[in-house]
Amino acid sequence: MYVILVYDIGQKRVGKMLKLCRQYLNWIQNSVFEGEISEVKLKELQQKAKKIMDVEQDSLIIFKSRNEKWLEKEVVGKEKNELDTFL
User: Fold this and answer.
1) Is 72 contained in some domain?
2) What is the number of structural domains in the chain?
3) Disulfide engineering: 5 pairs with which of 12, 33, 49, 52, CB 3.0-4.6 Å?
4) Is the per-residue pLDDT at 65 higher than 90?
5) d(CA 39, CA 83)
6) Do the Cβ atoms of 57 and 11 come closer than 8 Å?
7) Per-residue pLDDT at 82
8) Can you tell me the distance from the alpha carbon of 29 to that of 81, in angstroms, rounded to the nearest whole number?
9) CA-CA distances (angstroms) from residue 76 to 6, 46, 72?
10) Does residue 57 fall inside a structural domain?
11) What whole-number distance in Å separates Cα of residue 68 and Cα of residue 70?
12) Which range marks the domain in which residue 57 is found?
């Protein structure tokens, strides 16, 4: 499946969350990630994220799609992290 993940995490925990999300998805810009991920890997990511988060203050939002082709992406302004495609 294709996901877009967005988080809002307290300053003390944001570095750990950034490092975790980079292990599973592509960094797009501040606290935003996207990419293909299996259901199992997504559950794994969520479980690890919950250990980092303070659920009373922090949030993690995941938008899911069957495939990237079902989403249209438009960037206005400078794209923070352009994804390279390697063959």
Assistant:
1) no
2) 1
3) 33
4) no
5) 22
6) no
7) 66
8) 7
9) 18, 30, 13
10) yes
11) 5
12) 2-67
Please indicate, yes or no, if residue 80 is contained in any of the structural domains: no
The answer to whether position 79 is within a domain reads: no
**pLDDT confidence of residue 38:** 96
* Positions of E strands within the chain: 2-8, 26-29, 32-36, 59-65
**Partners of 26 in beta bridges:** 34
Tokens found for residue 8: 């809002």
Q: Which residues of 9-34 are buried (b: 16+ CB within 10 A; e: fewer)?
A: beeebbeebeebbeebbebbeebbbb
CB-side neighbour CA atoms (13 Å) of 73: 15
- For 69, residues 6+ apart whose C-beta sits below 8 A from its C-beta are none
Q: What is the CATH number of the domain that holds 62?
A: 3.30.70.240
DSSP, collapsed to helix, strand or coil, labels residue 72 as coil
Instruction: Enter the pTM of the model.
Output: 0.80
